[in-house]
Write a structure and sequence with these properties.
The protein has 598 residues and is an alpha/beta fold. 36% of the residues lie in helices and 17% in strands. It is built from 21 helices and 23 strands. The strands form seven sheets. Strands 18-17-16-21-20-19 form a six-stranded mixed sheet. Strand 6 and strand 7 form a beta hairpin. The protein starts with a strand and ends with a helix.
Length: 598
């Protein structure tokens, strides 16, 4: 390995040559020639194909042949020695060759799987795992989706477990929000996602994945921008889009629910042994004797059984309401309650086969993961309510916004402020203290400052929990409201400055809001280049928010287009994680402030 971006002395205070290294959990453990072992982040290191310095002398990197073995190899075949060497083949290093082989294998799997990175038809499960995949979620007991709640999954196994459970058991579609707490648009769209979960409760399952905490799931789903929403049905991705699109969430969730209804939803239903026996008597008499066994096998895989039956026989068995756990236990004991002294018959461990032990171990791990998740949810629910300035996703829903119809029908208003960022809120505070009862017209998410994923370090007196874009906006909003400012969650379409009072046209109503004065605090938007492919690749390599998407391209070469303060801030932010940052500017000098340009 070689150090990039800084010297080794600055990293560990020692001069040394990397003798060997190991990468585990996104950190390198490097063994120096002096025996010291240090842990470094990948952003400071990269694998090097350069030969070891001469001072290395007596040691070699793992996997490199010794000089004696190299010479004996050369003497064995003069023609082969020019092609195969201890350092590689035909001038290519062994790591490079390995990457080529892995790439070819991936491409072969990609083509064989119908264009899916995960397997056929964008499924997270390989074809060989289809039988076992549903075992992940056969015991998934989380039923928060029935109450319209959003569930966060923190591991890839949990993610696959939920997909498998609803594919094989309920048949419900799964909607996933890949987000980051440092992503402004992610915070903007979070309340909409929560409302959609409540609207589609019992019809779809809503999950959220923190790409920082659950990087494995984000990587497996090929997430390249945030927020990204993916829609799954029967373990296969049926749609995906990136960006804070409220309408897209409702539209595509509705489409997924409709598709699930066409295929079949079997929430709370099961196929009994008697129903399966009657079905086989009519369609496949040879399987009548297996009805009880198959009914037990598919007892928690109703949707899978129905799909298989429909595909094979063109018909499905009759379903009945699933028994509750208490009813099932009572039925198993012949209608008698289970006594404390009764012990179920369990085969001793010594008599169980290896396969049975593996299955039992898998079930135990699933139960342990479920309990840990349940305990974590209980801990979160027992935490005290967030105080003023907290970063709760529900803050926007709890803030007392006025009704759009009420403010339009009343008036004219003395002052209307268009914009809900720091400029608009500052104006609202001063106008409210002057007794003008200003009306702030802006979407609930609080302006451009919300996109600041890093701490707000240059605002006097703001430290601690509120020293973020969202935290600062929340405090400023509450401050102006305490003096009498009023807020409406809406977007302004246009303003007619020729009338008196002025006429403000809002999204969602045909009537104009009237105001004697208007303060414009509209903020700014990203300036796109309007070049070919720019729109098509947004969220897939092209981004307008470094704090949102920058970490997804760590150890990559990136380019920042622009020469102002914003461009310099993004370049500095990306320099923390990216391998190389190139700033592209149309002029000979940057327009940014001197300190940022330097």
């Amino acid at each position: 390995v070689e150090v990039i971006g800084t010297s080794r002395e600055e990293l560990n205070g020692q001069l040394g040559i990397a003798r060997d290294f190991d990468c585990d959990k996104a950190r390198y453990t490097v063994l120096l020639d002096n025996g010291q072992a240090i842990a470094l982040k990948p952003s400071n290191l990269q694998e090097s194909d350069k030969p070891a310095p001469a001072s290395a002398g007596s040691w070699q990197r793992a996997g490199t042949a010794s000089s004696s073995s190299s010479s004996s190899f050369s003497s064995s075949s003069s023609s082969s020695s020019s092609l195969f060497t201890a350092d590689g083949v035909a001038g290519l290093s062994w790591p490079t060759i390995g990457l080529f082989v892995m790439g070819a294998a991936w491409l072969f799997q990609f083509l064989q799987g119908g264009g899916s990175v995960f397997g056929g038809n964008s499924s997270l499960f390989d074809a060989d795992d289809d039988d076992d995949a549903s075992n992940f979620g056969s015991e998934d007991r989380d039923e928060s989706y029935l109450k319209g709640a959003v569930r966060e999954v923190v591991t890839l196994d949990q993610f696959k477990s939920v997909l498998a459970y609803h594919s094989d058991n309920t048949g419900l579609p799964v909607v996933v929000d890949f987000f980051s707490h440092s992503c402004g648009p992610c915070r903007m769209i979070a309340p909409t996602f929560t409302r959609a979960a409540k609207q589609f409760k019992g019809q779809a399952v809503f999950l959220k994945v923190d790409v920082n905490r659950n990087y494995e799931a984000a990587s497996a789903c090929n997430i390249r921008g945030m927020p990204t929403f993916q829609f799954f049905l029967n373990k296969k991705k049926i749609h995906e889009f990136s960006g804070a699109d409220s309408g897209g969430i409702y539209t595509h969730t509705g489409n997924a629910v409709d598709r699930a209804s066409e295929v079949g939803v079997f929430l709370g239903l099961e196929v009994t042994a008697r129903a399966l026996e009657a079905f086989y008597q009519k369609h496949d008499p040879e399987k009548v004797s297996q009805a009880a066994t198959l009914a037990q096998k598919y007892s928690k895989k109703t949707a899978l059984l129905m799909r298989v039956s429909q595909e094979k026989y063109g018909n499905t068995p009759e379903t009945t309401s699933r028994k509750s756990a208490a009813e099932a236990k009572e039925s198993a004991t012949g209608g008698k309650p289970h006594t404390a002294g009764a012990t179920p018959m369990v085969k001793p461990l010594a008599e169980q086969s290896t396969e049975e032990l593996h299955k039992e171990l898998k079930l135990l791990r699933q139960e342990l993961a479920r309990r840990e998740e349940h305990e974590e949810q209980q801990r979160q629910s027992q935490q005290p309510e967030s105080s003023e300035g907290s970063l709760s996703e529900s803050d926007d829903e709890e803030f007392p916004f006025l009704s759009l119809a009420d403010v339009v029908s009343s008036g004219p208003h003395k002052v209307a402020i268009i914009g809900g960022g720091p400029a608009g809120l500052s104006a609202a505070t001063y106008a409210a203290r002057a007794g003008l009862s200003p009306l702030v017209l802006a979407p609930a998410f609080g302006g451009q400052l919300l996109g600041k994923g890093v701490d707000v370090e240059n605002y006097p007196g703001v430290v601690g929990e509120v020293a973020t874009g969202r935290g600062l906006v929340e405090v400023m909003r509450e401050q102006s409201r305490s003096f009498g400012a009023r807020f409406v969650s809406t977007s302004v379409v246009s303003v007619d400055f020729t009338t008196s009072p002025l006429s403000i046209f809002l999204n969602g109503t045909d009537s104009a809001l009237r105001a004697e004065a208007v303060i414009l605090a509209c903020g700014a938007e990203s300036r796109w280049l309007q070049v070919e492919g720019e729109y098509a690749f947004r969220g897939r390599g092209v981004s307008g928010c470094a704090t949102c998407d920058g970490f997804l391209y760590r150890n990559h070469d990136v380019a920042v287009i622009g020469g102002g303060d914003h461009a310099m801030e993004d370049a500095l932010y990306l320099a923390r994680t990216s391998r190389k940052v190139t700033v592209i500017h149309r002029g000979p000098l940057f327009r940014a402030s001197r300190i940022l340009a330097e």
